[in-house]
Amino acid sequence: MTRSSPQEVSLLLQAWRGGDQTALEKLVPLVYGELHRLAHFYMMRERADHTLQTTALVHEAYVRLTGADRIDWQDRTHFFAISANVMRRILVDWARSRGYQKRGGKAKRVSLDEALPVSPDCPIDLVGLNKALEDLEKFDSRKAGVVELRFFGGLTLDETAEVLQVSRDVVKRDWKLARNWLLCEMTEGGRDGS
């Protein structure tokens, strides 16, 4: 894996945004390892028999990211936040295409607790979580962004604060409130009674 500075990645992203395709060629080896780590983080939360592999998730995300010409790349952290969102959407689309039920199918419920040990024996109901996250986004997009960056993107409190341009304390508070709201929505006694 090639080591790079956040500034180098940010400069390459800006050059790519400006239409420099050679910048993209230089960028890929610098971010591939981190994208693979992020995809691995996602796949550890999936069922053990999931047919999509980590490398395939990275490659699908890469295809979608390179086809996204309207993204105003800010910096390295912004790139990985967008990448996390793309990977989440790929996995949700994959789950939907496989016919999993809205509220989990055979998936087990898991806690959104930060201290949750990730276990392949305890897959996440991505379709249900995605629906709850979309509902949260309708009335509080910042809290939904915090969940996406922290839970899905694996960003720290400080990195999340940087992306959202708020304080670390705001991120901590939003993270706690959003987790509680999502857990409520995903339980059987949720708002819609399902």
Your description of this structure?
It is built from eight helices and no strands. Helices cover 64% and strands 0% of the residues. The chain starts with 5 loop residues before the first helix and ends in an 8-residue tail after the last helix. The chain is globular and about 50 Å long. With 194 residues, the protein is an all-alpha fold. Helix 3 packs across helix 4.
Number of alpha- plus pi-helical segments: 8
What is the count of structural domains? 1
Order of helices and strands: HHHHHHHH
* Average pLDDT reading: 77
Structural class: mainly alpha
Largest sheet: none
Helix content: 55-70%
Uncertain runs are: 107-122
Shape: globular
Would you summarize the structure shown here?
This protein has 194 residues and is an all-alpha fold.
List keywords for this structure.
194 residues; mainly alpha; 8 helices; 0% strand
Topology:
Elements (H helix, E strand, L loop, with lengths): L5 H12 L3 H24 L9 H13 L9 H22 L28 H14 L1 H12 L4 H8 L3 H19 L8
